[in-house]
Amino acid sequence: MQKVKLRTVSWLVASVLASPSLFATTSVPLSVAPSSFSKAELEKSPEPVELEKSYYNFEAIPVDSVNDVEPAPVSASASTQEHSLPTALVTEASSITPLCTTLSTGTSYNLNGTETGGTYCYHFQITQRAKTTIYLRGQSADTDFALSLLRHEADDSLTVLGTSDQAGNADEGVLALTEPGDYYWYMEANASDGSAFQFGSIVNTNADANELNDTVGLSTTLPEGQSIVEGNMDSAQDVDYFHYEATNGQDVLLRLNDDFGQGEWVAEYFSGTSWLSFSPNQTYNISGLPAPFTLHIRVYPNSSATLNPAHSYQLIAGTKVASSDMADADTTENIVRLGLNDWSPYLTTQVHNEMNWRLRVLDSLGNPVPGAVVRFRYYTEDIPVTMDTAVSGITGIASGTVALPDCDGNHQVTHVSGGNTWKTEFDEGFWDMKVDYADPLEVGVGGDNYPNVRIGHICKQTLQ
Q1: Nearest residue to 105 (alpha-carbon basis) of 204, 238, 235
Q2: H or E stretch covering 349
Q3: Phi/psi at 312 (nearest 5 deg)?
Q4: What gap in Å lies between CA 370 and CA 351, rounded to an integer?
């Protein structure tokens, strides 16, 4: 994005016209589908509203104003439903004085009487965080406009969010993530025969937290280790791109969780030559990778399913957890432990009210994996199955502390420790550790041969 400071209106226009590179940002043609705002989305825009020729722009006082019209209804893809947006993202009325005539979003306007070399500006306001498409279409064979999206900043500077300037009379369009504020259509006539064309905007407030990621170039970067991200389809043309770099060529994990079971999404990864689909609710492991390797992933709506922006998918991607070590569950409490011969089977973990646990998770090359979800599960004769969950840090270690309640003790034993005789009352229990989306026979604690570790929950100890 580029910024220019408003000293005078005429200075701005002179700078813009003298420096075409100012608007040399990524343009997204409307004619390409499905990775951009496609024909289908534009067909939802309202019927055009006629505009008379207007010089209300950065360089002059208006001669003719915009016709007074009642804004047409906003299409479903441009709906601004309050329930779909956090209150914190709704802005109060802007204190900025618009530089150009204000028009409505969600309405298509006709503009005619333009001249070659002319520049035309109109203002609109965004009140909720949204994905906004501005477009210009329906140009005659002898008309060729460039279209830019500008944001009016609080310090009265202008930021160029994008420009579309295709050859000839091709449709123009710019897609941007727009926070609440003031924006402009800025149109430059490379050529014009004065005939009418349409321009407008489609505002979609259903954008998820990862937007704007509708192209490979804008894809969301997934951090080192494992990541869990949520997304939704805000329109039938939405595509969410992600990428993950396996720096060392380690094995990679890939999974799409679909809690709705309605087949709403298509998920694919790039093999290097083509996009390959992967099924929801199944874990995929990709191995034998070069170092480094970048995995590209995309999710888009299934055209045969009903679009529901309120439904979210969950993407799990990153380094695969291949092994683990440093597994432990113990306590720092001052208790008298039962020995090997005091009770059988042996109570490996003995605690009173506090149990500390940890596990380190490693990738296929033996390096720590951050971001993995580790679950410590335990129960006793008087404590139901309970889960404590932690996420591994940069060292690959996940850990936690669980508080056990006081107990009465279903068992008691008299034993000698340090030359003293003790009576210990306790409950028996078990614990294990599992790592999400990892092989339970290779990672964690608990397998076919040894499914868990025995706990002695010490209730009371009395010196005899």
Answers
A1: 204
A2: strand 349-351
A3: -115, 145
A4: 29
